[in-house]
Structure formats: C-alpha cells, structure tokens
Amino acid sequence: MMCAMEQKETLLEFPCDFPIKAMGKATSGFEARALEIVRRHAADFKDENMRIVASGKGNYLSATFVVRATSKTQLDALYRELTACEDLLMVL
C-alpha cells in the first residue's frame, strides 16, 4: 500500500506541460527577473509560452509561464527560487 506522500508525488506524470503564475509590482525588472529564473530551471522554455497581464490600474503584473516539467524535483526547485525572489510577491 502506498503512503499518502508517495501518492502525492505520483499525481503528475512527467514530462508534462505545467503552468506557473507569478505576480509582482509592475517594475521594469519584473518580467526579466522572472523569465531568468524560469529559464534557469527549464532551459528549453520558449517565449510564446509566457503571458504577461497588467492589473487594472497597471500597478501589478501577472506572468504565466507554461514549462515542460521533467520531474517534481525540477518544479520544487523552480518554485523555491521564484518565491525567494524579492521582485515577486506571489507564486502559484
């Protein structure tokens, strides 16, 4: 019988396309910094798999990156680095 942790780690089948959303203040470095981190963990990332949307008043940006995930370890490392970045306020 699988324990709960083992079941949780098998919910995704790798490789798979995985969307990651990052939000932050609309600064000149937001997009470049987030993209730099994504490319460090997903070297084959293509710009057409990124969507940037400004908030209603233009104070914040939301960036969605669809990465080709190869493992849970890869996604965990990407999330850790994105959440550690001071330019990003939230990562989903």
From TrEMBL:
GO cellular component: cytosol
InterPro entries in the cross-refs: UPF0250_YbeD-like, YbeD-like_sf
Leader sequence segment: none
SUPFAM superfamilies attached to this UniProt entry: YbeD/HP0495-like (SSF117991)
Classification via Gene3D superfamilies: 3.30.70.260
Pfam families documented for this protein: DUF493 (PF04359)
PANTHER family reported for this sequence: UPF0250 PROTEIN YBED
Family: Belongs to the UPF0250 family.
Family matches, as HAMAP family: UPF0250 (MF_00659)
Name of the protein: Proposed lipoate regulatory protein YbeD
